[in-house]
Structure formats: structure tokens, C-alpha cells
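## retry 2 of 3
previous attempt timed out at serialization; input unchanged, resubmitting
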Amino acid sequence: MARFNVIIIGSGIAGLSLANRFDETISVGIFTKKEEAESNTNYAQGGLAAVTNLTKDSYRKHINDTLTAGDGLCDENIVRMVVREGPGVVNDLLNWGVNFAKYKENIKEFDLGREGGHSERRVLHAGDITGREIERALVDVSRKKSNIKIFENHIGIDLITTRKLKVEIKKRNRVLGAYFLNKNNNKVITVSADVVVIATGGAGKVFLYTSNPNISTGDGIAMAHRAGTKVANMEFYQFHPTILYHPRAKSFLISEALRGEGGTLRLKDGTPFMDKVHPLKSLAPRDIVARTIDLELKKTGDECVYLDMTHKSREFLKKRFPDIFETVLSFGIDISKEYIPVVPAAHYLCGGILTDENGLTSMDNLYAIGEVACTGLHGANRLASNSLLEGCVFAKRAYEATIPMLKRINKLKKNVLDLKPDVFVETEQSGGMPYSLPKWKDSGFSDSDETIVTTHNWDELRRAMWNYVGIVRSDKRLERAERRIDNLIFEIKEYYWNFKITPDLLELRNIAEVASLIITSAILRKESRGTHYTIDYPSKDDKNFKHPTVL
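## retry succeeded, writing output
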């Protein structure tokens, strides 16, 4: 049994930047299913969008760009808040040691990039390894803080709630802790907390082809939904238009920042096919570019399209995009002389666990921040590089929302209670009340010798999602996907309750739950908007669908 003031599930920019804000009086447990630096943040190439140069840019422009990309579903109040709080969280990152690129050495002005959908250069970056640089700095800070304990190789199983324990605290359900599987010894630990924060990132592995790392299996969304928390806008999965197409490349992302530097998308014969599609041409919002590429590939029968960066010198490309340049070169392609073969792949979930302006979910004391959350910022389609910004801003707001309560609880525990309860629930009536959480029980379950079942179901699910719930959808495709996923969920549940749990089984259980949520949401939206495009309803319907899809 472990006990903390705050449990943070996930160790990306959102989780770590939140943890680093708490002082030594607040105990924080960070649980991550791999190493602490393994996260979607670590793979982010582009950067963080924020208005840092008010002489050339403005909050209003960034707000308008975000609303335009979101295609009518953004919460305008949330967009204004996030954009205006951007410069403040950038300063926090600088103070934590993040080294964003400068225009010239010893000059304060940042070397700002531009990406799809942005009307100005406002993307702070560290070459093309921005996420890796942010993760490095945040991990360094967290390691030095005595109040933070990091549990690597611990995967979340389920949340523990008052409803699950049949404890009546208030009318609303309240989180009390969570169960985690230690992957090193296959033991389950019970962890209690005053506040639980889900910061597990996205769910790209629900699709066969994705830019996401292997950890992105939607664990946080599945855990929250099983516990009764509302989710929203799950139909809006953004497909990144440019993933390197090569038999030996495993979903390597070709950053949108290349198109921000004038990169042009071309067909095999060299034709620039985006010029007549959108005023921003190759820098159009991602949903439009990905859908256009999908259409062109179906028309031509080609396996990929191409990104042309040959207008830039080898010296510029090696300095601005060192990791991309060297990685693509390792596959025999010199991007200063040759086109880059690219295809779309699942990249970012615009929906997620529904939260308010502070990251609070529909369950008391449960917060969700980062890609796992649906805050209202992204709407139907995320503006490039707004994700790292969102993670930082909502981490700060979650800190500000929880710190008064945490300080009050710690004071009550010291002054009122002589015992150390497993979980301490603050109530309006009693001031404070201890509850013991049940330990995990898996006695009577046997080890499975049929791992092929898990592997087969994993592959079948991801292929069904890619074929039927991908960039272009239809009612028939969604209905086929629903039938297949429902059958898989039945098999997975039967398997889950009859054998001891394993990390692979937990991840399979979670991506199946997320897949079902995506399909259900897509079936409910009888229109095309943002990243959700269906051939049966090709137009946008503001009269009936200008609102989030909440499940």
C-alpha cells in the first residue's frame, strides 16, 4: 500500500510540469508504465506555440488560428485563456532549464517556426527535438525534488472510487486512488491519494499506422471511462499528413515545421497538389492535408506522396532539422536533393476525458491534463503545436485549483487525526474522514499460456480501426467496425476475468475500450467536421451538431 497527496499517471510535459510545481509539503507519486522520459512529449518535433513577440504577432491572431483549425467546436473562452497564459508557462519552462532555440547566440529573441494553420511565426522549438529537450529539463527538475517519487514500469489498472467502494461522501463520485501493475515483478500495488491526475497522453496504437510510440494505448481514457467519467469528441482523431514512407522506417514523423519553411507536397510526377485545395497550400490545417493525400493516393494508386525540401540548402536543413536530416539520410535519402516519401498516420486525439477550465473531470478530485483530456481548446481539429502549450497551461491551472485543498487536508491530518489513514477524504460535514482501500485480489486466477490470443486480437482490432474508422469514414464502415470491436471486447473481457493480468492484456483491454468510444462517437455525428469526415454526410451541419459529442 502506498499513499500520496497527489498521484500523477504519466510522465510527459503535462504530468511533470504539474509535479514540479508542488513544494516539499505535498507528496507526489508519478506512475509511468515505462521509463520516466518515455512519453509522447519526448517524440514531439515541432514545438510549442505561444505569442512571445507582440510586435509581429498577437493573441488575437493565435486565437483566430486556433478557432479556425477547430472548425466551430472550440470553446472560445478556453482558447482565449490558454493563448493568453502561454507566455507565462513559457517563462516557467525557461526557468526549469528548457533551451529553446534563439535567432542568434546571446540574443534574447527566439528563433520562431511556423506550422500548418498558423498565420505567423510563433512556434518555439529546439531544432527538431523540442519534445526531447523539454522532457530532459523537466525530468532533471523532478529528480532533484524530495517530495516526488517516480515509479517506472508501473501500468495503471483501474481507479478506486467511492462508488466502487459504496462509500457515500457526496452526490458526485470521488476518486480515492488506483491499482497499478509493477511490470518488474508482476505484482499489483494499491495507491491512495487526495487527488489523482491522469496525464497518460494519447491512443495512437488503436490504429494500425501511427506516429505515436508504443506506450500510446489510451490507458487513462479507458480507466476514467470505466470508472464512470465523461469523455467527449472521441471521433476527432487527427492524422498527421507526413510520416516517412520506407519499409525500414517505423512511423518516423516528418515535422510540419518543414512545410513551415516552404516545403511543398507533390505527387510522383512533381505536381504540387495542395495549391488548388486551400489558400495556405501545403501549410493548410492537418485534417485538410491528410484527407487530400488520402484522396490523391486512391486516385493514382500510388503508395505515397512526396515532400519537397530541395529549395533549402544542405547546411540549413542540417542545422534546423538535424534529427530528421540524419534519420532520413540513414535510409538513403538526402532531403536537400531528393523528395521525401510520406503518408498520413494517426497522430493526435483531439477529444478525451471531459474537463473544466482547471482540468477537473466529472468525478471529484480526478483531473485530466494533456492529450488525454478534452478541454475545449482543440475542437474538431488541433492547431499544430498547441498540444504542448495546452499541457503546460492546464498543469498550472490544476496546481492552482488543488493546492488550497491539499494544504487544508495536510493541516487536518496533522492537527485532528492521530492515525495515518490509507485515504483521507475531506467532507463538508466532518472535515476529514479516513477510509481503508482494499488490496488487489487475483488469487484463483492462473497464468495464461495462450499469448497468441492477445497478439491476434491486438492486430485484428488495429486493422479494423484503420480500414473502417480512418481518415475517410461511412456508415457502413463504422457499422462493420462496431460489430468487430464488440466481438473483440467480449473475448477480451472473458480473457481478463479468467487469467492473471499482464501488461499486454491491460493495453489490449484499454485500446478496445477506446476503439469502442471512437466508433460510437463517430456514428453519432451525422456530418463532416474537422478530422471527422464521412462520405454519407460530406457537409458540416451547424444547426444540429455544433456541440461536443459527450459519452
